[in-house]
Amino acid sequence: MEISTVNVKDLVEKGIAILTEPPKRLPTDTMTDAPLLGNGDLGAAIGGDGAEQVFYLGKNDFWTQAHLAQTDKQRQQRLLEKEGRRSGTRIVPAGWLKIEVPALQGCSYHTEQNPYYAEVLSVYQKGDMDVRYTSFISAEKNILAVEMENIGKDPLHIIFSSMPGIFGTSEIYGYSDGIRDDTLWWEYPAEPYSLKGSRWLFASIATDIMTQYHPEYISDKGGEFWLLPDKKVHMIMAVLSDLDAADAREQACKLCISSIVQYAEIREEHRTWWKSYWEKSFVQTGDDILDAYYYSSLYFIGSAVRSGKVQPGLYGPWITSDRPKWTGSYTINYNYESPYFCLYTANRTELAESYVDPLLEIIPIGQLYAKNKFDRPGICLPVEIGPWGTVCCSLFHHQKINAAYCCCNIFMHYYMTLDETIARKAYPFVWEVVQFWEADLVWEHGCYNIVGDCLYEEYSCNEEEKNNVLALGALRMLFRGILDLSEALSLHEEKKEKWEHILNHLAPFPTFIHKGEEVFKFSENGIPWIDRDTAVCLRQIYPFNCIGLDSPPELLRIALNTVCHRNNHFDDFNSFCEYTVMCARVGRDPQLLYDKLIEQCLLRSFPNRFIWHGGGGMEDCSGVTSGINEMMLQSHEGVVRIFPVWPRDKDASFYRLRAYGAFLVSAMIEQNYVKVIRVESEKGMELTIALPWEHTSMKINGNSAAVIDERRAVIPTKQGDVIEFEERICLHTGQ
After folding, report:
1. Which of 606, 624, 652 delimits the end of a domain?
2. Local structure of 666: helix, strand or coil
3. Phi-psi region for residue 678, left (φ > 0), alpha (ψ -120 to 50) or beta?
4. Is the entire prediction scored with pTM above 0.70?
5. What region does 445 belong to: left with phi over 0, alpha with psi -120 to 50, or beta?
6. What is d(CA 234, CA 664) in angstroms, rounded to the nearest whole number?
7. How many domains, in total, are found in the chain?
């Protein structure tokens, strides 16, 4: 099973989004329907039409920080005593670039968002006038590059301008701008005053054509030029923050000028990065719609996140309003965690390496809350946080489990890579969470109980509510995870006995009879069930990984009953990012899951192919991707399962999906028959695999190694081994 660059390109380009009318959701306080560009730090949503094309710019590190004007005492008082819904900390727009072609007023509109090249092509026509834009944000540098080509018959008058902040008003405070060295520049602080610690942006714009600039303009500074027929012009906009360089003002100018000269090299470098990104893994689902939205979703998450950069909030780097919903925060009771899930299974774990950064930064605030609100050691966190130890909303909604929820990504990343560097980096956060729960659990009736924690976000709560299934699942994951991390890192060996005792004596998941079948009860003594709500009551299945196809039959039966009674989660406000995996983990009808994914792609997507259900933003990128990956490959129980929940009549294949134990797995199925399996061992761990055949031939590194006559095999491996499996056909002849 050899990878083909041509085939990968063909697959990914199924995800090309074709827009035939200008976007409608610009500006917006949530997700936009516009063509999107990004490099995990800088982002652009492309609005307007051919007469006025506007690049709405966002940057993951451009946040207001409400506490900067407060003393430490004032900040602590506000965090602990004020119950206001919003602190004022939020992500805000970076700025905009507008390109006008007045002669194209009333032109046709055609735009293609190409995920393979991470470029947007726009074609605008009116009579004999014809202009083509090709735009991209460099994968390696913080520049927006725009190529304009006049393929019509008449010269075109082009006007461009730019300002920081939101588009549509000149009432932007605290910025400076001007013209120097044939570049337009501006600089802009996130706070209205020059407070210590405030984020600053520095932008510089240049063209490679003779341009007349307008330094005399009070606002909307820019320039103009004429573009002749059959000619091209390139425009570069560099945007850096004070976090990108100590002398970001000068570096933005230098980057802009050098990039104009090196446009061809930068575009090639950009395409090379994305080519490598797409070759890390691929799937073929047997359906063009699923393929299209699978790769579109991977495009959006690949455009939104990078290691070493400030991590994306709810809407990634596509911020077009200075009042984004839910502050655009890291909403840590599922929204922040969920977009990363597909990066682990799709073998793009390097993009998730900085997931833990804001969690480490928030530890002192978590300790403050744990001590003063709960009289506990360790940390406890409210729902909405931001980067650099900031809090966007101090409400807990009677949920103490948020910090434990954050750990699910840490464990997924470690189990799939066995990367001890990541484990060591994240361990301090996990340790603090465990300290809180060691102290908070209540020993009663021979088990550890969770008291006073809500399943859902609530504004009022029975303080004696016990053992909701969300918290029970999270703590099973937490204590199992810290046992594994501490053993791998040789840390806190003296705690092993205590942690094992907690893990083995946590209260059982509560159940009750609902419509004649035993299902999970929301909590032991609270509201037992709500028919229409989110899938919070199923997260013990996923992402907390407490239940799977190897679970005891009775537990698996209850889990399957529960997911089957909650069909609304295919299309509710919050659950799309996880519900398909929840169903796949317990063996629900694969054809139903397959069909429902297609239905949601068609029902809930924008013209740019972004799927959006309303409960946040970026988390929906994991709906199709994680769902398909887990229908094709499961491994969270330590057993590699090939196409465990896949429709019988759908031919499919996957290449280098990532499995627990640091294995990369590839396989192909045709006419419900698995033809070949290949497993690459990154760390030399023991491989346990469920085989689809009665008799299996195995090769290791191309050499015949064994014949396996069992459905489950345990195989020792060495680092770098490639193990291939095929059915062994036994031919019987008689006299």
Report:
1. 652
2. strand
3. beta
4. yes
5. left
6. 41
7. 3
Residue 187, CA distances (Å) to 29, 58, 252 in order = 24, 14, 10
Find residue 223's DSSP bridge partners: 160, 213
Q: What is the pLDDT of residue 584?
A: 99
Q: In this structure, is residue 9 part of a structural domain?
A: no
432 and 506 share one domain: yes
d(CA 600, CA 609): 11
My answer on whether 521 and 484 are in the same domain is yes
d(CA 469, CA 390): 29
Question: Phi, psi at residue 162, to the nearest 5°?
Answer: -155, 150
**Assigned token pair, 579:** 């519900």
Verify that 205 and 295 share a domain, yes or no.
Answer: no
- CB of 723 closer than 8 Å to CB of 699: yes
Say yes or no: 182 and 239 in one domain. yes
Positions in the chain whose pLDDT score sits under 50: 732-735
* 62 in Cβ contact with 241 (< 8 Å): yes
| Residue carrying the six token digits 């001890």 | 420
Q: Which of 591, 623, 652 is the last residue of a domain?
A: 652
Residue 1 domain-assigned (yes or no): no
Q: Helices (H) and strands (E) in the chain — how many of each?
A: 16, 36
Co-location of 599 and 680 in the same domain: no
Same domain membership, residue 259 and residue 286:
no
* Those residues with Cβ within 8 angstroms of residue 723's Cβ, 6 or more apart along the chain or in another chain: 678, 679, 680, 681, 687, 698, 699, 700, 705, 715, 717
Whole-angstrom distance, CA of residue 283 vs CA of residue 607: 23
The CA distance from 565 to 591, in Å, is 17
d(CA 57, CA 538): 37
Distance between CA atoms of residues 174 and 188, nearest Å: 6
Q: Does residue 291 form part of some domain? A: yes
Residues 397 and 446 reside in one and the same domain: yes
Q: Report yes or no: 310 and 328 within 8 Å, Cβ to Cβ.
A: no
Query: Each residue of 174-203: pLDDT tens digit?
Result: 899 999 888 999 999 999 777 889 999 999
Distance CA 116, CA 12 (A): 6
Under DSSP, is residue 15 helix (H, G, I), strand (E, B) or coil?
A: helix
Same domain, 216 and 317: no
Contact (CB, 8 A) for 158 and 209? no
Distance in angstroms (rounded) separating the CA atoms of residues 364 and 76: 11
Paired tokens of 664? 């990369």
pLDDT in tens, 39-72: 999 999 999 999 999 999 999 999 999 999 899 9
Among candidates 36, 127, 565, 29, which has minimal Cα distance to 323? 29
* CA distance linking residue 56 with residue 40, whole number of Å: 16
Q: Return the CATH number at 445.
A: 1.50.10.10
Q: How far apart are the first and last CA of the chain?
A: 39
The pLDDT tens digits of the residues spanning 411-454 come to 999 999 999 999 999 999 999 999 999 999 999 999 999 999 98
CB 58 within 8 A of CB 67: no
> Following CA atoms 524, 530, 533, 538 in sequence, which dihedral angle do they give, to the nearest 10 degrees?
40
List the domain range (segments joined by +) for residue 139. Answer: 34-74+93-279
Q: Is residue 394, in this structure, part of any structural domain at all? A: yes
Cis peptide before 543 (omega within 30 of 0): yes
Q: What is the pLDDT of residue 735?
A: 31
Among 512, 399, 520, residue whose Cα is nearest residue 465: 399
Contact between residue 320 and residue 32 where contact means Cβ atoms under 8 Å apart: yes
